[in-house]
Amino acid sequence: MKKQSAETKRPFTVEEHKELGRIHAEKKISAVNDALGFPTGDAFDEELDSILNSDAEANGEVVAIALIDCDRFDHINKDFSREEGDRVLIEAGKYIQAGLPEGAKIFRIGGDEFGIIFRGILEREEIFLLLNEMKNGYAVQTPDGVRQTITIGMATAFEDANRCAELIRKADGALFRAKTAGGNKVTMAKEEKMVPKTSHFTQDQLQRLAKLAKREGVGEAILLREGLDLLLKKYDI
Predict the structure, then answer these.
(1) Is 117 in contact with 65 (CB distance < 8 Å)?
(2) Which of 85, 95, 100, 202 has its C-alpha lying 20 to 30 A from 17's C-alpha?
(3) pLDDT digits (tens, 9 = 90+) for 156-189
(4) Residue 97, SS3?
(5) Phi and psi at residue 192, in whole multiples of 5°?
(6) Of 9, 47, 58, residue with least CA distance to 164
(7) Cβ neighbours for 233, distance < 8 A, ≥ 6 positions apart
(8) DSSP string, 96-151
(9) Whether pLDDT at 200 is above 50
(10) Are residues 166 and 203 in the same domain?
(11) What is the pLDDT of residues 2-31, one digit of tens each?
């Protein structure tokens, strides 16, 4: 954007404000990502999908994922500064990485959320205990000396789900339940009670759903849960 002189200075347009906000957001994301060097974006989904489609299950490997969220993070940017928020995220990422066993891989999912993929190195219960120790030892502080906390949702492949989207949904559901209960917890995916399809769907939708389920080789309920999860995320619920 061209710098304006005192003589030609004018109020920013709405579009210019949006562009400045976009540039600032990109710089903020880049600053944290550059400092941590973790894979980001779709890399988590792509690697998990690759593992689930490999011979991991046939070989009896334990594959699990964890989604880690910094509790009450919004207030850090608001009460201190975005730079302070970046510092907290960088310290959080480094702390989580330092506590991982060899072979586990960490990702920055986005915002204040990190993801971990465990493959064939620990049993399910051992992973849960490791994550709980990680949660208990988290000691990142804000400038006022207040110790921050993290919340973790965990799901195990081939036990909780076989598909990438479903497994992530299960871990995200565990994370949501833990956050709703006040945070600072590690929660595992749980068995879900399902309800039958109702008249909320048209005949055409159900026929197309059945066709998709057959093509993908998965149950209709799984596809419906994936679709509903995307809808809830869209509206930030």
Answers:
(1) yes
(2) 85
(3) 999 999 999 999 999 999 999 999 999 999 999 9
(4) helix
(5) -105, 140
(6) 47
(7) none
(8) HHHTPPTT-EEEEEETTEEEEEEESSS-HHHHHHHHHHHHHH---B-TT-PBP-EE
(9) yes
(10) no
(11) 444 444 445 545 565 455 445 444 544 578
Q: How many helices (H) and strands (E) does the chain have?
A: 8, 5
Question: Which amino acid, 210?
Answer: A
In a domain, 202, yes or no: yes
Q: What are phi and psi of 161, to 5 degrees?
A: -170, 155
Task: State phi, psi for 203 to the nearest 5 degrees.
Answer: -60, -40
Global model pTM greater than 0.85: no
- What is the helix, strand, coil percentage profile of the chain, to 5? 50, 15, 35
Residues 209 and 226 sit within 8 Å (Cβ to Cβ): no
- Residue 147 is predicted with a pLDDT of 96
Provide the 10 A C-beta neighbour count for residue 179.
17
How many CB atoms lie under 10 A from the CB of residue 89?
Answer: 26
DSSP state of 136: H
Q: Which residues pair with 110 in a beta bridge?
A: 113
> Is residue 18 one of the residues assigned to a domain?
no
Residue with tokens 């309800």: 195
